[in-house]
């Protein structure tokens, strides 16, 4: 073997070894952690190192008078000091230019609506765009934030060849914008935007929605059903947080929690290891042991959404009960807002065994009016299949809002406060 061939062989071998060593998750090709307004680099509570942004290399083309750095005059004790102590205050149109590789990226925007240099964020209103997508429009962070709290807005935006990820903040007239931190993390190209046809709800023959990388997503909810919160550092390399589902579950007294932490999970090419952490698939909620009670009820979650938007609803399943050893033992139907999404779901049969995770994707269009601002997810045993057990279960879920030609409203300030997680907002594609 000549030296060049030997070097090529060794590089290929190293690549295979590295791929095997990191198979449990995903190695991001782009990672940017920017602490906006900070004068020195910081380390957040999860151990990540954040770059100071007082003289950012990512915003070289802006008017020097367009922005300034400031610390919050007061910070609620519940708000972490790192990332939320300082902010970049933006007085006119301001763009960050992030050099990244082509492909879909997580873009996370961190906000704490405090008071900065005498400017009260309660009076702030602004818009945010990223590569032609309007992510926020006339946005009020103070109306979106939980009481006295901070929050994160998470998006999925695709960067094309010869592009940078350009994130632009534009204050509304006679107002200002602000941002506490920006996070960018790449993801596998087929994690969510697969370019495949997904079933539309209600389920009818021939009704599909093609979701590809020309669509931007906003994360609304990401839940570890029946399990504990999974922190971003324990995700599969993309720093996603999987929250508990208790705040959204209806009639929890009729639902059982199952936790089999030592159950082996066998990932597949259709559901690779980066899809969700193992902890998502080893915990679940299922119905009671009483078949009569189960037949007369549903397992139900209710979520707040914006009206007149398309949503991607991804449900995670994995059969881990030792008593389930063959098909047609647990079969159930899935409903979204009382409309059939899919009938006769047999996870064991679909996965071809136990301990094998799968996920099911559905596209749902919310309607108009007050009722349209709720998304109901219901699972109900399927009687027609004559399954061995009258039951249903769910391991995890993710809900994303898809872009459209329009903008979602700011939350109603008189409405009940939501959990301090990734909250509804607005998302649209700019017209060309």
Please tell me about this protein's structure.
Helix content is 9%, strand content 37%. It is built from 6 helices and 31 strands. The chain has helices spanning 3-21, 81-84, 141-144, 278-281, 291-295, 347-351, and strands at 31-35, 42-43, 49-52, 67-71, 86-90, 94-98, 103-111, 115-116, 119-120, 126-130, 133-139, 151-159, 165-171, 177-179, 181-186, 196-199, 208-211, 217-224, 243-244, 249-250, 255-259, 283-287, 299-304, 310-317, 332-336, 339-345, 358-365, 374-381, 393-394, 396-402, 428-429.
What would a concise description of this structure say?
This protein has 6 helices and 31 strands. It has 432 residues and is mainly beta.
Which key features would you list for this structure?
mainly beta, eleven-stranded mixed sheet, five-stranded antiparallel sheet, disordered N terminus, disordered C terminus
Mean pLDDT equals: 87
Helix content: under 10%
Sheet-strand content, in percent, reads 35-45%
- Biggest β-sheet description: 11 strands, mixed
Low-confidence runs of at least 5 consecutive residues:
3-23, 412-432
| Helical segment count | 6
Rg, alpha carbons: 23 Å
Q: Give the tally of β-strands.
A: 31
Give the terminus-to-terminus CA distance: 55 Å
Shape estimate: elongated
Structural class: mainly beta
Write the layout of secondary structure elements.
Elements: H1 3-21, E1 31-35, E2 42-43, E3 49-52, E4 67-71, H2 81-84, E5 86-90, E6 94-98, E7 103-111, E8 115-116, E9 119-120, E10 126-130, E11 133-139, H3 141-144, E12 151-159, E13 165-171, E14 177-179, E15 181-186, E16 196-199, E17 208-211, E18 217-224, E19 243-244, E20 249-250, E21 255-259, H4 278-281, E22 283-287, H5 291-295, E23 299-304, E24 310-317, E25 332-336, E26 339-345, H6 347-351, E27 358-365, E28 374-381, E29 393-394, E30 396-402, E31 428-429
């Amino acid at each position: 073997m000549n030296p060049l061939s030997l070097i090529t062989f060794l590089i290929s071998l190293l690549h295979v070894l590295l791929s095997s060593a990191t198979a449990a998750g995903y190695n991001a090709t782009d990672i940017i952690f920017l602490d906006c307004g900070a004068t020195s680099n910081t380390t957040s509570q999860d151990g990540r190192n954040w770059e100071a942004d007082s003289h950012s290399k990512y915003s070289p083309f802006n008017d020097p008078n367009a922005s300034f750095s400031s610390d919050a005059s007061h910070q609620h004790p519940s708000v972490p000091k790192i990332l939320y102590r300082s902010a970049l205050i933006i007085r006119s149109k301001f763009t960050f230019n992030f050099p990244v590789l082509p492909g879909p990226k997580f873009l996370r925007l961190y906000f704490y609506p405090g008071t900065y240099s005498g400017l009260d964020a309660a009076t702030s209103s602004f818009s945010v765009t990223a590569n032609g997508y309007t992510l926020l429009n006339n946005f009020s962070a103070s109306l979106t934030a939980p009481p006295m709290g901070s929050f994160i807005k998470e998006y999925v935006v695709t960067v094309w060849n010869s592009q940078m990820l350009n994130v632009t903040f534009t204050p509304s007239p006679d107002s200002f914008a602000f941002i506490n931190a920006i996070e960018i993390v790449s993801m596998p190209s087929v994690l969510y935007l697969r370019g495949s046809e997904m079933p539309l709800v209600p389920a009818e023959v021939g009704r599909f929605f093609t979701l590809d990388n020309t669509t931007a997503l906003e994360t609304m909810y990401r839940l570890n059903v029946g399990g504990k919160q999974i922190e971003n550092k324990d995700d599969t390399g993309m720093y996603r947080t999987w929250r508990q589902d208790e705040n959204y579950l209806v009639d929890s007294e009729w639902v059982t929690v199952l936790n089999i932490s030592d159950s082996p999970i066998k990932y597949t090419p259709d559901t690779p290891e980066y899809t969700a952490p193992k902890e998502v698939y080893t915990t679940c909620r299922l119905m009671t042991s009483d078949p009569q009670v189960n037949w007369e009820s549903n397992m139900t979650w209710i979520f707040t959404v914006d009206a007149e938007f398309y949503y991607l609803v991804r449900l995670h399943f994995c059969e881990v009960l030792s008593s389930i050893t063959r098909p047609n033992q647990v079969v159930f139907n899935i409903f979204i807002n009382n409309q059939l999404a899919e009938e006769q779901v047999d996870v064991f049969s679909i996965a071809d065994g136990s301990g094998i995770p799968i996920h099911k994707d559905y596209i749902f269009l919310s309607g108009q009016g007050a009722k349209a601002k709720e998304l109901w997810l219901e699972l109900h045993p399927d009687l027609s299949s004559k399954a061995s057990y009258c039951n249903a279960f769910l391991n995890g879920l993710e809900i994303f809002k898809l872009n459209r030609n329009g903008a979602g409203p700011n939350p109603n300030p008189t409405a009940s406060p939501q959990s301090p997680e990734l909250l509804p907002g607005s998302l649209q594609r700019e017209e060309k």
